[in-house]
Fold this sequence. Notes:
Distance between the termini: 47 Å
Largest sheet: 5 strands, antiparallel
Oligomer: single chain
Mean pLDDT: 86
Low-confidence stretches: 1-6
Radius of gyration: 13 Å
Number of helices: 1
Amino acid sequence: MRTKKSPSLDLSRIQIEILEQSENTLIIRWVEPGRCHYGEQRWRRRSANSSGTCVVSRRAIRRGDAVFRPAERPAPANASAMISVEAFCSVDE
């Protein structure tokens, strides 16, 4: 059985615009030239199931941290992306 591994995100190329926000949901415009574009993508708050990097702050995310992740099914091309809830909240303050 083969598993599909998603390509790593090139954070320097990603353009993100927060269109709407609530405590548990973000609506994001995501542009990653040459790879994917989502005009209105829903992200939901959850716990990180792996370590990674916040696409907004570029800070490290540890497994278990509160993050926003794409909520669509089937999994979108940017399914591995995460936004740290702490980083996002610090942008608003």
